[in-house]
Specification:
The complex is a heterodimer of chains A (525) and B (392). With 525 residues, chain A is α/β, with parallel strands linked by helices. Chain A has 12 helices and 17 strands. A 7-stranded mixed sheet of chain A has the order 2-3-1-4-6-5-17, with helices on both faces. Chain B has a domain of 261 residues: 3-Layer(aba) Sandwich (Rossmann fold). The chains are: A alpha/beta (525), B alpha/beta (392). Chains A and B meet through helix 5, helix 6, helix 7, strand 14 and helix 8 of A and helix 1, helix 2, helix 4, helix 5 and strand 11 of B.
């Protein structure tokens, strides 16, 4: 494993509203400050985080915006006034007694890249809040360690690190409707509408991470037909393929609970639910991207209503569960008809808003964007239909950029080791140029990270990964095609040894004659 | 097969009911199980099953591979995650008296060919080169998804190989071999690129233990049917079909796996005990020194099944119903291009008129040149220089 010295720079602007400036500032405003912290991953890899804080007073327009009634309105008003390039943060400090933030809340994180913080008792308290806040909005030691999980010994990582999707150029998303009882339920879901209305904006936002080409893929999915494989995605795409599966049953029989007169699936039987269904799910033959499957299961009439039970025995509110790096399943209960004489099949119109709310939450969790582990004094603004806040996108980008750079360095190092070991591999020109390009892009990515240009750094790291993967997995590098030394001897010795016997004997004869000839002149004298 | 299925589903229903009734009492046990799941660290399972022998009398090798395939599918690994390589077609072989079947038990008790076998590499496609390409991922871009091993750093891979082998090699197709050094190097290439989390390697050939001697990458566990110097023997012939149906080791492994269901807690130590010398005549061996976890803690389903870790979704996003947004996107529909016909995407004229690619000619390398120079020099030295003038 190669050693990596990465420096991650985050530009942070700290803006003091009137009345919030602490008395014990080291220097008069405006001033700059740098806070460096080392995150050591293992003996050889160090990641240094560098927060470049720029403290200043609020300008007139910002003061006016901060006079708003609620934090949300203030955030919306401040948005056009800030530097919203990827990776940068703006923190507005409001007086300790300000009513902008609700009671008990000290930090409000907005939808974009800004936050409102109470000033606190003094500079030390403010600094603590700022440090925690900047870590939440960019990266923490654990998120960096998870991104570098190849290099970290297994025992140090928590189960979180194994969950998240790895950085990839594209992802394939499948939405499937499972109807095991078509005789009782005629289920109708407007998946195309739901995808373009709710999923599309989220994927558009994530298109920085992996580009998404909107037009063809989304429209072309037509219910039962599945994914058309016509246009191969040019690069970096999310491919969305809806399909409906009939008579697909869950692998586990739920048990009936008399008290709630419903059926329950317990938490530890959930892992066995996925397998029987998995075999039926198709995947697009053309793409090689990781696949995320989102399934909506409408239980049979005889097993309705069906709820998922968590470890404590309580029914889960979302009625859904997800599996890391695979996708999620949601159970959609159909209300029993009012009268038993209603003709079957019942027509069911799926409430796509609720369903997509759960699926998009699962998508966020699969990517590793969770909002749960924050201290209670933090209030996070919900991103609404956009699916994720700008700073959450930044978190993804930080983690993916670091992961990409680590992958490039591991790949190229192992390629170099391979070439050292097998000396007679022929490296084609295009493989060599890919290697050079990967190295150049990786260096540029590291340089940009150190200066705080996250977007450029991410694009460079993506190019570096593409080039290094192309170089490493080039089909011409299979060492079987080259002539290993031990096979040379194994093949040629049986052929040439019999032929060599008279040659060696003749050589011996020559040597003897030469020696005799050298002796004779002296004798003749 | 008909006898097995109801038993399995009854067992599953019984287990589910039992577990449901004693849910509260087992709550802490479930917690431990959850920890156990996370300990193994994998999120998906792959299987690469290789049969390397061709010809009718090697029926048993195909039956071996197909029985492992069947078990692995039954325990949950989907076809999309199995790479099945069969070097010859036994089911539709003209010498098969029962076409479209491959039996593993005599008296035709169990047809392992079944209804939905998906063979990814068939017949002459099963070569050492293709096998190594599948493992290392150095595969031509035109290869379809079903022929690739798309594993990642959290994949547990099962690799099963069977055929004729010797001390340090395994024969492919009666024309080439793969050596244990090459196999070990291929696994190292996989490790370098983190293409597996843990790997279980099972080999059923003569002197099978020699194939895992050279492994040096971490997280590999290996099992073999016989030690160096021993032959692996076949199990039982079927007089109706006329060939031996299975090899002993795989036969007893199959019997062992038939007892396993996706929720079972059987561990690797039990698999190591399968087929003692009294049944197998050869001594099965195993190698666990490269594996980080204790085999006691490794479940059979970690490799043979596909039990996924799940988490309850506790978060949700509240979406606003956005009809206006949808309307504004409709005009884009008119820009959608007509779907291309298949033929229009291929450069047909180029393909039809393609000339065979000329293989690059390389001049002979140093070793051969030197050898010939030596031979010629000795020849002319021994027999006299006067012959040279006849040459020039």
């Amino acid at each position: 494993a190669a050693s990596a010295q990465l420096q991650l720079a985050v530009p942070v602007a700290v803006v003091f509203a009137p009345g919030s400036v602490p008395g014990d500032l080291p220097r008069p405003l405006p001033f700059r400050d740098v806070q460096e912290m080392e995150i050591s991953v293992n003996l050889r890899s160090h990641v240094t985080s560098r927060y470049e804080m720029a403290y200043r007073r609020a300008m007139a327009r910002e003061e006016a915006a901060l006079d708003a009634a609620t934090a949300r309105e203030a955030d919306a008003a401040l948005h056009p006034l800030q530097d919203s390039s990827l990776g940068s943060l703006t923190v507005y400090v409001v007086p300790e007694t300000s009513s902008l933030l609700p009671q008990g809340i000290n930090v409000y994180v907005g939808k974009h890249r800004s936050a409102l913080v109470r000033a606190g008792e003094g500079l030390a308290a403010l600094r603590t809040r700022l440090r925690l806040l900047t870590q939440v909005m960019s990266f923490t030691a654990s998120s960096i360690a998870a991104a570098l999980s190849d290099r970290v010994p297994n025992s140090q990582l928590g189960p979180d690190a194994r969950r998240h999707l790895k950085s990839s150029l594209g992802y394939e998303i499948t939405f499937s409707l499972l109807n095991p009882d078509p005789k009782s339920h005629a289920v109708d879901w407007d998946i195309e509408g739901a995808v373009s209305r709710y999923v599309q904006p989220v994927l558009d936002k994530l298109s920085v991470v992996a580009n998404f080409s909107v037009d063809s893929q989304v429209r072309a999915g037509r219910g039962l037909a599945g994914c058309p494989g016509v246009q191969f995605p040019a690069s970096n795409v999310f491919v969305v393929c809806p399909q409906i599966l009939y008579y697909a049953v869950l692998g586990v029989t739920p048990r009936f609970d008399k008290e709630s007169s419903s059926f329950l699936l317990s938490a530890h039987s959930l892992p066995h639910v996925i397998n029987p269904v998995e075999a039926r799910l198709g995947s697009s033959a053309a793409s090689l991207y990781p696949v995320l499957n989102f399934l909506l299961y409408v239980p049979e009439r005889s097993h309705s209503p069906l709820y998922i039970q968590d470890k404590d025995g309580a029914p889960v509110s979302t009625n859904a569960f997800h599996s890391p790096r695979w996708g999620g399943i949601m159970i959609y209960n159909v209300e029993a008809p009012a009268s038993p004489q209603t003709p079957l099949p019942l027509h069911v119109e799926v409430d796509m808003v609720r369903v997509m709310g759960v699926f998009l939450a699962q998508l966020r969790l699969l990517f590793g964007l969770s909002r749960e582990e924050l201290p209670p004094e933090f209030l996070l603004e919900s991103p609404g239909n956009e699916g994720l806040a700008d700073w959450e996108l930044d978190r993804l980008l930080w983690a993916h950029t670091v992961e990409n750079i680590a992958t490039v360095s591991t790949t190229l190092t192992s390629l170099a080791q391979l070439l050292d070991k097998i000396g007679n591999i022929v490296i084609k020109d295009d493989v060599a140029s890919e290697v050079y390009r990967a190295v150049a892009s990786a260096q540029s990515a590291m340089a940009k990270l150190a200066t705080g240009h996250l977007h450029v750094a991410f694009q460079a790291s993506k190019e570096a990964v593409t080039s290094s993967e192309r170089a490493f997995f080039d089909p011409s590098l299979l060492h079987l095609l080259y002539f290993p030394d031990d096979q040379k001897f194994a093949i040629y010795i049986p052929l040439f040894l019999p032929m060599a016997v008279p040659i060696l004997l003749s050589l011996a004869k020559i040597v003897r004659e030469a020696r005799q000839r050298r002796k004779e002149p002296t004798k003749m004298d | 097969m008909a006898a097995v299925a109801p038993a399995g589903s009854w067992a599953r229903v019984a287990t589910a009911l039992l577990v449901g009734c004693c849910g509260a009492a087992l709550a802490s046990g479930v917690q431990d199980q959850a920890e156990q799941f996370f300990k193994s660290g994998h999120t998906n399972n792959w299987a690469v099953l290789v049969c390397t022998s061709r010809f009718w009398f090697n029926y048993r090798h195909v039956a071996n591979t197909l029985s492992v395939y069947r078990s692995v599918k039954r325990l949950g690994i989907p076809d999309s995650h199995i790479v099945l390589m069969l070097a010859d077609d036994m089911a539709c072989n003209p010498r098969n008296p029962k076409p479209a079947t491959v039996f593993s038990h005599k008296n035709m008790e169990l047809n392992v060919y079944g209804d939905d076998v998906e063979v990814d590499y068939r017949s002459y496609e099963v070569t050492v080169e293709n096998f190594l390409r599948v493992l290392t991922g150095r595969i031509p871009p035109s290869t379809p998804r079903s022929k690739r091993l798309l594993s990642d750093d959290r994949s547990n891979i099962l690799i099963y190989m069977t055929g004729h082998g010797g001390n340090g090699f395994l024969k492919f197709q009666d024309s080439e071999e793969i050596t244990n050094v090459e196999l070990a190097d291929a696994f190292e290439q996989m490790w370098q690129k983190r293409r597996y989390n843990e790997l279980l390697f099972i080999i059923d050939t003569c002197q099978g233990a020699s194939m895992y001697e050279r492994f040096y990458s971490p997280n590999i566990m290996a099992l073999a049917s016989s030690q160096v110097g021993e032959d692996s023997l076949s199990h039982q012939p079927d007089l109706g079909i006329g060939v031996h149906l299975m090899d002993r080791y795989t036969f007893y492994v199959l019997e062992f796996l038939e007892e396993i269901h996706p929720a079972s807690q059987t561990n690797m130590n039990d698999l190591f005990q399968v087929c003692p010398k009294s049944l197998c005549v050869s001594t099965p061996g195993h190698r666990t020194d490269l594996f980080q976890r204790d085999p006691q803690n490794v479940l059979i389903t970690d490799f043979f099944g596909s039990v996924r870790k799940v988490e309850i979704t506790t978060e949700t996003i509240s979406l606003k119903s956005d009809l206006a947004g949808f309307e504004s996107k409709l005009p884009k529909d008119e820009l959608a291009t007509e779907p291309l016909k298949y033929a229009e995407q291929l450069p047909v004229a180029q393909i039809i008129h393609q000339k065979p690619k000329q293989k690059d000619w390389h001049p002979p390398g140093g070793f051969i040149l030197g050898l010939w120079a030596l031979i010629i020099m000795v020849f002319f030295k021994t027999y006299g220089i006067k012959h040279m003038k006849h040459v020039f």
